[in-house]
């Protein structure tokens, strides 16, 4: 009797079938009717091959809602420019990579606005429901989508309580070599892994610091000496839908 689970057998078969269809010289492969996965060059090496993600780290974001104003959408613009998706002029719906959300207390009329993106959960429901293993979590806590084995089923989109994933319907052009995208696949915030792996902040954090209000902070949640950990230990913060027990990597201050 095989010790390999049915899901593992399915993922392995899916990988092998895709590789047979794709081949070394093929640039596109039809996964299903109307769904095409584009083959792009390997992402630029962000760190040496002998330096994998560190399991002792957990990368996260802290967003100070009091510093985030409705008239500022620099974080959305930065994400668009860095990762190659197009702005449509409405930062609340431009992309599920990152969007500005406004909430209002119906009793008092008090309003707040803040960015929402993939929350990089410690227990991500998107990973649990993915039938091919395309949705996965790195050992350092960053949740990603492997475009080469994503079949566009969109189960992860339905499972995400934050509406933080989107499906690529349109043909793509002028892509970034370090942020490959694929028509017929699902995508979401990557925390700019290509920047993080070389020791930089995500693009939204740097832009908010220089052109925004300084509302975003990035760092290692597992390092008690990091600025983000010290801030979390000093001030009260919240997780969106903390009741779900997902242990999000994105926290909000003054929400």
Structure description:
- By secondary structure, the protein is α+β, with helices and mostly antiparallel strands.
- The chain has one domain (56-253): 2-Layer Sandwich (Alpha-Beta Plaits), CATH 3.30.70.20.
- The protein has helices at residues 6-22, 74-83, 125-129, 155-159, 193-196, 203-210, 227-234; strands at 28-32, 35-38, 59-64, 98-104, 111-117, 135-137, 143-145, 166-167, 186-187, 216-220, 237-238, 250-253.
- The strands form five sheets. Strands 10-3-12-11 form a four-stranded mixed beta sheet. The protein has a two-stranded antiparallel ribbon with strand order 1-2. Strands 4-5 form a two-stranded antiparallel sheet.
- A hairpin with a 2-residue loop joins strand 1 (28-32) and strand 2 (35-38).
- The longest helix is centred in the first third of the chain and has 17 residues, at 6-22.
- It is globular, with a radius of gyration of 19 Å.
Count of extended strands? 12
* Strand composition percent: 15-25%
- Overall 3D form: globular
Main beta sheet strand tally, sense and closure: 4 strands, mixed
What ranges have pLDDT less than 50 throughout 5 or more consecutive residues?
A: 1-46
Quick summary:
With 255 residues, the protein is an alpha+beta fold. It has seven helices and twelve strands.
Topology:
Layout lengths: L5 H17 L5 E5 L2 E4 L20 E6 L9 H10 L14 E7 L6 E7 L7 H5 L5 E3 L5 E3 L9 H5 L6 E2 L18 E2 L5 H4 L6 H8 L5 E5 L6 H8 L2 E2 L11 E4 L2
Parallel strand pairs: 3-12
Antiparallel strand pairs: 1-2, 3-10, 4-5, 6-7, 8-9, 11-12
Features:
disordered N terminus, alpha+beta, 12 strands, single chain, two-stranded antiparallel ribbon, Alpha-Beta Plaits, 7 helices, 4-stranded mixed β-sheet, 255 residues
């Amino acid at each position: 009797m095989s010790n390999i689970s049915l899901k593992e057998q399915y993922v392995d078969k899916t990988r092998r079938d895709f590789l047979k269809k794709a081949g070394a010289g093929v640039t596109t492969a039809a996964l299903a009717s109307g769904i095409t996965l584009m083959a792009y060059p390997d992402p630029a090496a962000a760190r040496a091959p002998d330096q994998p993600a560190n399991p002792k780290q957990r990368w996260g974001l802290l967003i100070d809602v009091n510093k985030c104003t409705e008239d500022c959408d620099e974080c959305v613009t930065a994400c668009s420019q860095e990762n190659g998706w197009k702005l449509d002029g409405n930062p609340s719906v431009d992309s599920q990579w990152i969007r500005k959300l406004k909430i209002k207390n119906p009793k008092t009329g008090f309003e707040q606005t803040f960015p929402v993106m993939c929350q990089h959960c410690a227990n991500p429901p998107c990973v649990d429901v993915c039938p091919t293993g395309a949705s996965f979590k790195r050992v350092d806590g960053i949740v990603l989508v492997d475009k080469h084995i994503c079949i566009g089923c969109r189960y992860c989109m339905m499972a995400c309580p934050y509406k933080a994933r989107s499906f690529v319907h349109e043909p793509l052009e002028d892509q970034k070599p370090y942020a490959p995208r694929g028509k017929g696949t699902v995508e979401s915030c990557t925390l700019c892994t290509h920047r993080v792996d070389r020791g930089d902040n995500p693009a939204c954090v740097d832009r908010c610091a220089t052109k925004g209000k300084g509302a975003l902070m990035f760092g290692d949640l597992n390092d008690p000496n990091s600025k983000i950990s010290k801030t979390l230990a000093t001030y009260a913060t919240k997780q969106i839908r903390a009741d779900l027990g997902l242990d999000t990597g994105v926290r909000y201050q003054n929400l």
